[in-house]
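User: Sequence recovery, please. Input:
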């Protein structure tokens, strides 16, 4: 049986998990809440979920500017992030920009 302390910690992590606007029927927070009630919950699983929530890997292994701005397309990742944010808000690019490949 999982300890109540581990279960509470994972419930707390699950409640802080951001909602995915593109998959409203499939949320990682919901999965973590159900995992918190699993009888074989381990401290390692709770640490892994906390690490993902706090983005520890990105801080430990930061991406260089050369990786984020490749010489062939320096604005690629900036445009990708902008497109993601706009699509989450429901803002689409006009058809003519898509057709002509204009950003």
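Assistant: Recovered sequence (103 residues):
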């Amino acid at each position: 049986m999982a300890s109540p302390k581990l279960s509470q910690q994972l419930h707390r992590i699950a409640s802080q998990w951001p909602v995915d606007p593109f998959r409203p029927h499939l949320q990682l927070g919901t999965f973590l809440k159900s995992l918190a009630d699993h009888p074989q919950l381990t401290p390692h699983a709770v640490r892994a979920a906390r690490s993902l929530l706090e983005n520890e890997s990105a801080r430990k292994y930061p991406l260089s500017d050369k990786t984020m701005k490749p010489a062939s397309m320096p604005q690629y990742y900036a445009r990708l992030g902008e497109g993601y944010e706009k699509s989450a808000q429901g803002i689409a690019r006009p058809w003519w920009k898509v057709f002509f490949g204009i950003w």
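The helical segments are 4-16, 28-36, 43-53, 56-60, 65-68, 76-88, 95-100.
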